[in-house]
């Protein structure tokens, strides 16, 4: 990669770490039973890894699964349909499930996952996202646990990408464009 990428930091490592510990304590206080944490790939991988370690410190012993979901794209615009690229392997019947994702925007991805796991017999499907963009919802769905309510800008880092770039950043930020710099 060229070294000229500029990202304006919105949430730094310390802010993310503090908020993640608090989220884990909130989740533990909800006293989930037979908890299965389902991380939605790809964007949630870094948040899920940190949240799971915080859940351990909060005294939880969850099982962990991965769901790889993708919105159908028409050009660069999401058509609204969600495709399962890789399903979870465990039964969710009569279990509490915590869906973990990077960001709740239109809500289509999480609504699809929540409805599917409820239809498969989950007792309770809770949702935890690192970020939430308010006012962007296309379907009525809320997260039970939210790291930060985020401004309506396209963010990257901490697992979130543009064309597979920026996922490695340990912070969350906004790509600075030539227009911003002018
Ligand atoms: P939705 O809630 O619209 O179904 O989808 C949310 C997904 O869209 C997120 O999991 C993430 O992959 C992607 N997304 C939404 N907003 C942003 C953003 O600002 N930056 C990045 N990198 N991805 C986003
Ligand atoms: Mg995603």
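^ structure tokens above, recovered residues below v
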């Amino acid at each position: 990669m060229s070294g000229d990428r500029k990202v304006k930091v919105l949430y730094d490592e310390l802010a993310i770490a503090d908020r993640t510990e608090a989220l884990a304590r909130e989740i533990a206080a909800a006293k989930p039973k037979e908890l299965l944490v389902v991380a939605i790939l790809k964007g949630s991988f870094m948040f899920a890894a940190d949240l799971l370690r915080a859940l351990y410190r909060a005294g939880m012993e969850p099982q962990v699964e991965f769901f790889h979901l993708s919105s159908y794209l028409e050009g660069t615009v999401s058509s609204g349909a969600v495709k399962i690229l890789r399903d979870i392997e465990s039964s969710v019947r009569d279990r509490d499930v915590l869906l973990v994702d990077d960001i709740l925007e239109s809500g289509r991805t999480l609504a699809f996952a929540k409805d599917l796991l409820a239809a498969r017999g989950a007792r309770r499907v809770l949702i935890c996202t690192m970020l939430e963009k308010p006012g962007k919802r296309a379907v009525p769905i809320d997260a039970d646990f939210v790291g930060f309510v985020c401004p309506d800008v396209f963010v990257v880092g901490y697992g979130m990408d543009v064309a597979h770039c920026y996922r490695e950043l340990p912070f969350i930020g906004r790509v600075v464009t030539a227009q911003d710099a002018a």
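The chain has a mean pLDDT of 93.
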